[in-house]
User: What shape does this take?
Amino acid sequence: MIEQIVIVGFGCIGQAVLPLLQRAWPRAAITVVDRSLDDRRRQIVAAHGLHAVEASITAETFHSVLAPLLRPGAFLLSLAPSVCSRDLIALAQEHGALYIDAGIEPWDYADDTRTAQLSNYALRERMLAFARGRERLPTALVAHGANPGMVSVLVKAALMELAGHAGPEPDEPQNRAGWAALARRLDLRVIQISEYDSQQAPGFPRDGEFANTWSAEGFITECLQDAELGWGTHEPALPPGGYRHSDGCGAAIAMNRPGHRTRVRSWSPAHGPFDAYLITHNESISIAAYLTDDAGDADDTGDAGDACGTAGQPPYRPTVYYAYRPTDATLASMQWLDERAAPRVRGARVLRDEIVGGEDELGVLLLSGRYGGIWYGSHLGIERARSLAPYNSATSLQVASSLVAGMRWVLANPRRGVVESDAVDYRSVLADAAPWWAPLGGHLTDWRPTRGKTALAIGEFLMDAPAA
Assistant: This one.
C-alpha cells in the first residue's frame, strides 16, 4: 500500500499515469510538482483532488522543494526532463522513500559543454557507480518507462518463446548469467527495440512546430545526440564513424553522427520491413550489458552494476539498438533539425487529443543466426488507449502502465538499492502491464535486412552510411 505519491513533472507522462495511479492506489495522497501549472494542468489537479506545487526543480532548489514532501514509504516519480536522477534518488533514499523514473537524466543537457558526459553510456556508467554501496537502501528503479524499461522485460519473454521454438523449452534462467547463456545458445545476434508509431494527427506540425506523441523536448535531445548501440561480439568491424568508449563496461559504441541522420532497416508484424532511425537510448546499453556472457561471473546476483562484462572482448554479446519510426507529424517536424542543433524549432506540441487514428506498435525484434527471429510486443491503438484511461495516447499509456507495473515490483522489493529494469522479475511486471499493452504477444519471422547476407552485422541494417 502507498499512502503518498510525489510526481515531479506534470506534463504528458505525469498526466497519463495519474488515472492509473488512482486506480491502483485510490487512497494515496498525490502531489504534483511542475515548473508551470497552466490552466489545463490546474483543471486536472482540481478534478482529481491533487495537491500541486508550482516550482522549478533545479540543482539549487530540489532539496528545499521536495524534502518536505517525502517521508518513509512515500513514492517519488521523476518524470521531468533535465532533473538529475542521481540527486533525486539520494534525496528519496535519505528520507526512506521509494523511487522510479522513465529515464536517467542529468541536470541540464544544454549547459554541459562535455557532451560525451551526456551520452546514455556515460549517464548509465555514473548511475552504476552511484549505486555501489546503496544495495540495502530503499529501492530506486531507474529508466523504467516503456523504452527504456518494459522492453527489457519483453526481451526475456521473447527469449523464452524463441527458445521454445528452437527446441525443448529450457528452464527459466534465474540470474543474469543464465539469461546471457540462453541468448548465446540461441545464437542471438541482434536485438532491435522496434517501434512504428502510426498514430495520425492531420494538420500537424505547423510551421516551425515540433510535434510528437511524447516529450518533444526529449526527442529533440535524442535526435541531436550521437547514435549509440550495444556492440555485439559477432560484429566484424566498427561502422563508419563508429568509436569505442575509453572507460566503463565497454558494452556499447557510438557513431559520430546524430540519430536523426542515422537510418536502419527494421521489421514489425503489422508493417513488415520499414525504415527507421537509430536513436540513442539507455536500453540499448543496459540490455547488451545484461546479456553479456563473460563466462567468469560466478557470483552474479543480477542487480544493477553486475551486468557490464569487461572493457575487453567477452565471449558473447548481442548488438542492441533502438529503431524508431515516429508518426508522420514527427517525421515532418524533423525537417526543422540541423545537424546538431534545432534553431528553427519555434514551438513544441505533444500530440494527444489531436490524434484521430492509428497505433503504436512497440516491441523487441530478436534475430538469431540459426533460429530465425521473433518480434514480441504491443499493437496498442489510440481508440483502445482512450477507452482505458483519460489523458492518454497509445504511446503515453504504454509508458504509464510500465511505470505502475514497475512501482508494484518496487513495493514487493523495497530494499534493493538502485535497480535497472533488466534485473526485475519479468513475469510479474509483464503480467501487471499486459492488460494495458494488449494486444501483446510474439510473432516469429524469417526476415533479414539484406538479401543474400546472413551475418546480421550492423552494416547490413544501416542505410545511407557515409564512406569510412
Remarks:
- Confidence is low (pLDDT under 50) at residues 297-307.
